[in-house]
Amino acid sequence: MNKIEANISLFAITFFASIQYVFLAGVPADLSHFAFMCITNLIGFLMTFAFFFGELFRLDVKQIIQSSILSLELIGFNFFMLIGVKNLDPSVVAAVISSYFVFILIFESVIKRKWPEKFSIISVFAVLAGLFLMINANIKSLLNINILYLIISNVFFAVYVMSVGSYASSSNPSILAMGQMFFCFIFALILWIFEAVFTDIKLNIPTNREFWVGVIYISFFIRGIYGIIQVYAQRYVSPLNTSLIFSSEIVMTMLVSPIISKMFGTAAEPVTLLKIIGSILIVFGIICIEPGFLKKISSILSRGINFSRPNKNIAQKITAGKEFFVITLVTLIYVAVDIPVLMTGFLPDYAGIKNAVPFVAGLFFGFSGVTGCCAGAVFSSFIMVEPIIEILWECWCVTVVGLCMYYGWHHLSKTHRIRFKRVEHYSRYIILVLIASILCFKPSYIVSYFLTGLIIGLPINILFGSLLYVEPFLPAWCEMKYDAEFELDNKPENLERVNEILEETANASKIDLKRILETQSCLEELAIRIFNALPDTKIKVNIIYYNAISMRLDYVGIKYNPFKINKHEDVLDIMSLKIIKHRALRASFFYVEGKNKVHVVI
Fold it and tell me: For residue 305, what pLDDT is reported?
């Protein structure tokens, strides 16, 4: 992930936050705020656990403490926000909540002695003025006790954003994302029980539709997707810049208000001249904080968009076991995001989170991803007793969407890597989403799939393709070439040769010296541990250079996880291994049929 991808991802999750207040309004007034946080964080944790369970071996005391601190900050933010949101206009809530960047500016200046730059001050005042105009310069609307609660929640969230920026640079983001949701669930459950013992609030969970609509939305989008992407993106974007991007939430709220009002039968937010001027000021402030962002976009656009023809090579062999695993996993995910929405009945059968699954699973896994989507659609529709015609129509949609994304991307890609580095990558994705959506034929289906593919599918594909380096299945004519490929055996002189290869290939990809040294030390540490355990094995190494460096190690033999620390090991060996575990964005280990597979993203 580079800075552009991080900024786009933050804007995407800001959209999720922009409409959460509609769902929060459905939380019963007599329900414990801790109960709502407990339920939503549990579901969010289970969702992230399904994706990152393979990295739990990286858990240590430091990251447990950091996760618990983040969860306490989030508990404070959510608690005071839920109190303050009652009986306030959504635009006022969004404006006040979005202004927490003021506290970040103050905290960085006072605590860190980090004085703001000229552009930062201009941006802060421009966005602050814009937020004031977005509530029609109505000072009376701010004279409310609930505003005080929202300001307190701002303090908690400002501290949280600064903590994420600090922790994400030295700890593993996926562990932090899972950990903060797990501890939020634990702390909220404890406080909920404590509240039930000493007050009239009971440990009952509402069964009404409005409550579970809010639970599903907040769990998947705010706790899950929002939380994961924010932690990863903040490795590349400063806390102040992040908070200013999040301030565009109120602008998005105004833009999507007509759609939301029709969907939920609520009154649309009126658009006034002051709100338009305020929106312009907010956008101006966000641009000012990143003056180099537009220059980068301009330089990318000046290169033009180049489409390439497919390479006539032989693709990698995909085992039946791997295909079965992908099909099963995609089926479970599709069912998990489809049935809860169908049960609430707050959206039509053709809409929902499920529409994003074929845009991701199809793009990465082709027929296997599409098969999983179809199996999930059939299973969930069968459980909910949907008409046969609707089941067939849904299977048609997920099939054309998945295959269109899969074949379209690889026909137009020379490297066959799923990344979003240049404007041509975004243009290609948007065009394919549009074509895939049109092939669904029905106008309602077209709109639903197109919006879902852009708003939900794009940030998830950025996360999986450009940061976590999920290895895609390739069509029969394609072959993805790595930036560096070599085999390493248990001979001391080979490490010197490997270091030379790494320096040559990394220099060709314009990777700076610090990153080269990090890659060399990581490979050397892992290779030594593997050869100590399996002296006769050979390690096949595949490396991709980008903003994050992906390194895959494959070796044959008995099951051996090089990340597992034994108590008898030397202290220095343990320290060097912990550095890898902390600094790596991803560190996974799998063992299948006598083959050990290690993937490290640095």
Answer: 46
The 3-state DSSP class for residue 420 equals: coil
d(CA 384, CA 530): 50
**Measuring CA to CA, which residue among 551, 397, 529 is closest to residue 471?**
551
pLDDT (tens digit, 9 = 90+) per residue, 197-219? 877 777 777 777 777 777 887 88
The answer to whether the CB of 339 falls within 8 A of the CB of 380 is yes
Residue type, 43: I
Question: With contact defined as beta carbons under 8 Å apart, do 177 and 74 qualify?
Answer: no
Dump pLDDT digits (tens) for 332-354: 888 888 877 777 666 666 677 78
Nearest-angstrom CA–CA distance, 123 and 244: 8
> In angstroms, rounded to a whole number, what is the distance separating the alpha carbons of residues 356 and 352?
8
Sheet containing strand 484-488, edge to edge, reads 484-488, 539-544, 550-556, 595-601, 586-592
- Select from 66, 45, 55 the least CA-distant residue to 189: 45
Phi, psi dihedrals of residue 442, rounded to the nearest 5°: -65, 135
Q: How far apart, in whole angstroms, are the C-alpha atoms of residue 284 and residue 276?
A: 12
Beta bridge partners of 587: 600
Rounded CA-CA distance 201/198 in Å is 8
Q: How far is CA 306 from CA 393, 404, 416, 458, 499, in A?
A: 35, 19, 14, 20, 34
Please, which contacts does 114-121 make with residues 24 or more away whose CB atoms are closer than 8 Å?
Answer: 116/240, 119/288, 119/289, 119/291, 120/240, 120/289
Say which residues have a Cβ less than 8 Å from residue 183's Cβ, sequence separation at least 6: 67, 68, 70, 71, 72
- Tell me if 364 sits within 8 A of 464, measured CB to CB: yes
Gap between the Cα atoms of 79 and 505, Å rounded: 51
CB neighbour class for 87 (10 Å; exposed up to 12, middle 13-18, buried from 19): exposed
Query: What residue type is 382 in one-letter code?
Result: F
Question: HEC string of 57-90?
Answer: HHCCHHHHHHHHHHHHHHHHHHHHHHHHCCCCCH
Which secondary structure element, helix H or strand E, spans residue 259, and what is its range?
A: helix 249-264
